[in-house]
Design goal:
This protein is mainly α and 180 residues long. The chain has 6 helices and no strands. The protein is globular and about 70 Å long.
Length: 180
Protein backbone atom coordinates (compact mmCIF):
# COMPACT_ATOMS: atom_id res chain seq x y z
CA UNK A 1 0.00 0.00 0.00
CA UNK A 2 1.35 3.41 -0.95
CA UNK A 3 1.23 6.39 1.30
CA UNK A 4 0.21 9.91 0.33
CA UNK A 5 3.84 11.01 0.61
CA UNK A 6 4.97 8.28 -1.79
CA UNK A 7 2.28 9.23 -4.31
CA UNK A 8 3.31 12.88 -3.97
CA UNK A 9 6.97 11.97 -4.54
CA UNK A 10 6.08 10.03 -7.69
CA UNK A 11 3.94 12.90 -9.03
CA UNK A 12 6.74 15.40 -8.38
CA UNK A 13 9.28 13.12 -10.06
CA UNK A 14 7.00 12.75 -13.08
CA UNK A 15 6.40 16.50 -13.33
CA UNK A 16 10.09 17.36 -13.00
CA UNK A 17 11.09 14.85 -15.72
CA UNK A 18 8.54 15.69 -18.42
CA UNK A 19 9.96 15.96 -21.94
CA UNK A 20 7.42 18.42 -23.37
CA UNK A 21 9.12 21.58 -22.08
CA UNK A 22 12.74 20.46 -22.44
CA UNK A 23 13.25 22.64 -25.53
CA UNK A 24 12.91 25.74 -23.33
CA UNK A 25 16.04 24.80 -21.41
CA UNK A 26 17.91 22.52 -23.78
CA UNK A 27 20.98 24.75 -24.22
CA UNK A 28 23.15 26.72 -21.82
CA UNK A 29 22.22 29.97 -23.61
CA UNK A 30 18.51 29.30 -23.11
CA UNK A 31 19.05 28.45 -19.46
CA UNK A 32 21.04 31.66 -18.94
CA UNK A 33 18.22 33.60 -20.60
CA UNK A 34 15.60 31.94 -18.38
CA UNK A 35 17.65 32.58 -15.22
CA UNK A 36 18.21 36.21 -16.23
CA UNK A 37 14.50 36.67 -16.93
CA UNK A 38 13.63 34.99 -13.63
CA UNK A 39 16.06 37.26 -11.76
CA UNK A 40 14.44 40.32 -13.36
CA UNK A 41 10.94 39.03 -12.59
CA UNK A 42 11.97 38.26 -9.01
CA UNK A 43 13.37 41.77 -8.61
CA UNK A 44 10.22 43.29 -10.09
CA UNK A 45 7.96 41.16 -7.89
CA UNK A 46 9.95 42.06 -4.77
CA UNK A 47 9.73 45.75 -5.64
CA UNK A 48 5.99 45.45 -6.36
CA UNK A 49 5.39 43.64 -3.08
CA UNK A 50 7.35 46.23 -1.12
CA UNK A 51 5.43 48.99 -2.93
CA UNK A 52 2.11 47.36 -2.18
CA UNK A 53 2.99 46.91 1.50
CA UNK A 54 4.88 50.12 2.28
CA UNK A 55 3.35 52.56 -0.18
CA UNK A 56 -0.08 50.95 0.09
CA UNK A 57 -0.39 51.27 -3.66
CA UNK A 58 -3.09 49.31 -5.42
CA UNK A 59 -1.10 49.60 -8.68
CA UNK A 60 1.82 47.82 -7.08
CA UNK A 61 -0.55 45.03 -6.04
CA UNK A 62 -1.84 44.78 -9.63
CA UNK A 63 1.74 44.67 -10.91
CA UNK A 64 2.51 41.90 -8.41
CA UNK A 65 -0.36 39.78 -9.69
CA UNK A 66 0.54 40.52 -13.33
CA UNK A 67 4.11 39.33 -12.71
CA UNK A 68 3.04 36.18 -10.87
CA UNK A 69 2.25 33.99 -13.91
CA UNK A 70 5.46 34.80 -15.86
CA UNK A 71 7.48 34.30 -12.65
CA UNK A 72 5.86 30.90 -12.06
CA UNK A 73 6.46 29.84 -15.67
CA UNK A 74 10.12 30.83 -15.49
CA UNK A 75 10.46 29.01 -12.15
CA UNK A 76 8.86 25.94 -13.72
CA UNK A 77 11.39 26.01 -16.56
CA UNK A 78 14.22 26.30 -14.01
CA UNK A 79 12.85 23.40 -11.96
CA UNK A 80 12.30 21.31 -15.08
CA UNK A 81 15.80 21.95 -16.38
CA UNK A 82 17.29 20.71 -13.11
CA UNK A 83 14.90 17.74 -13.07
CA UNK A 84 13.74 18.71 -9.59
CA UNK A 85 17.22 18.63 -8.09
CA UNK A 86 16.22 20.95 -5.25
CA UNK A 87 12.51 20.08 -5.08
CA UNK A 88 12.61 16.30 -4.85
CA UNK A 89 13.28 14.50 -1.58
CA UNK A 90 16.65 12.87 -1.09
CA UNK A 91 15.43 9.30 -1.57
CA UNK A 92 14.16 10.21 -5.06
CA UNK A 93 17.64 11.30 -6.24
CA UNK A 94 20.42 9.07 -7.47
CA UNK A 95 23.97 9.40 -6.13
CA UNK A 96 25.09 11.82 -8.85
CA UNK A 97 22.08 14.10 -8.24
CA UNK A 98 22.60 13.94 -4.49
CA UNK A 99 26.24 15.08 -4.89
CA UNK A 100 25.20 17.79 -7.37
CA UNK A 101 22.53 19.09 -4.97
CA UNK A 102 25.13 19.42 -2.21
CA UNK A 103 27.52 21.16 -4.63
CA UNK A 104 24.79 23.59 -5.74
CA UNK A 105 23.88 24.42 -2.16
CA UNK A 106 27.53 25.00 -1.32
CA UNK A 107 28.05 27.35 -4.26
CA UNK A 108 24.81 29.21 -3.51
CA UNK A 109 25.88 29.55 0.13
CA UNK A 110 29.18 31.12 -0.95
CA UNK A 111 27.40 33.53 -3.30
CA UNK A 112 24.94 34.56 -0.61
CA UNK A 113 27.80 34.96 1.86
CA UNK A 114 29.54 37.24 -0.64
CA UNK A 115 26.40 39.34 -1.06
CA UNK A 116 25.98 39.63 2.72
CA UNK A 117 29.64 40.47 3.27
CA UNK A 118 29.62 43.09 0.51
CA UNK A 119 26.46 44.66 1.92
CA UNK A 120 27.80 44.70 5.47
CA UNK A 121 31.20 46.05 4.41
CA UNK A 122 29.62 48.70 2.18
CA UNK A 123 27.28 49.80 4.93
CA UNK A 124 30.11 49.89 7.45
CA UNK A 125 32.39 51.87 5.15
CA UNK A 126 29.63 54.35 4.25
CA UNK A 127 28.86 54.91 7.93
CA UNK A 128 32.51 55.15 8.94
CA UNK A 129 34.11 57.04 6.07
CA UNK A 130 31.15 58.92 4.66
CA UNK A 131 29.43 59.53 7.96
CA UNK A 132 26.20 58.23 6.43
CA UNK A 133 23.43 57.41 8.86
CA UNK A 134 21.10 54.56 8.12
CA UNK A 135 17.62 54.83 9.55
CA UNK A 136 15.27 51.95 10.22
CA UNK A 137 13.23 52.68 7.09
CA UNK A 138 15.69 50.81 4.90
CA UNK A 139 16.17 47.87 7.22
CA UNK A 140 13.08 45.88 6.19
CA UNK A 141 13.46 46.27 2.39
CA UNK A 142 17.14 45.31 2.58
CA UNK A 143 16.44 42.27 4.75
CA UNK A 144 13.58 41.30 2.44
CA UNK A 145 15.90 41.52 -0.60
CA UNK A 146 18.49 39.38 1.21
CA UNK A 147 15.84 36.81 2.08
CA UNK A 148 14.76 36.55 -1.56
CA UNK A 149 18.40 36.28 -2.67
CA UNK A 150 19.06 33.53 -0.14
CA UNK A 151 15.90 31.69 -1.22
CA UNK A 152 16.37 31.87 -5.00
CA UNK A 153 20.15 31.57 -5.44
CA UNK A 154 20.26 27.74 -5.18
CA UNK A 155 17.70 27.40 -7.99
CA UNK A 156 19.55 29.86 -10.21
CA UNK A 157 22.90 28.15 -9.56
CA UNK A 158 21.42 24.69 -10.20
CA UNK A 159 19.94 25.80 -13.52
CA UNK A 160 23.19 27.42 -14.64
CA UNK A 161 25.17 24.28 -13.76
CA UNK A 162 23.03 21.90 -15.85
CA UNK A 163 25.01 20.34 -18.68
CA UNK A 164 23.61 20.26 -22.21
CA UNK A 165 22.15 16.92 -23.17
CA UNK A 166 23.63 15.01 -26.06
CA UNK A 167 20.91 14.50 -28.70
CA UNK A 168 19.85 10.93 -29.45
CA UNK A 169 21.12 11.34 -33.04
CA UNK A 170 24.70 11.56 -31.74
CA UNK A 171 24.30 8.24 -29.93
CA UNK A 172 22.82 6.68 -33.09
CA UNK A 173 25.83 7.90 -35.11
CA UNK A 174 28.25 6.52 -32.51
CA UNK A 175 26.49 3.15 -32.62
CA UNK A 176 26.77 2.93 -36.41
CA UNK A 177 30.43 4.02 -36.41
CA UNK A 178 31.32 1.62 -33.61
CA UNK A 179 29.47 -1.25 -35.26
CA UNK A 180 31.40 -1.04 -38.56
Amino acid sequence: MTTAATRHDRRMYTIMNRREARALSSTAARRRLVVGAHMALTLAMGAAWLGAVHLVSVWCAYALFALLVPWCLAMGVINGSTRGLLQLRGHMLDERQFVERDRVRSIAHRITLGVLFTGAAGTGLAAWLGEVRFDGGLLFPVLFALLITHWMTPSWVACLRVQDEVPDEVFDELDTVGGN
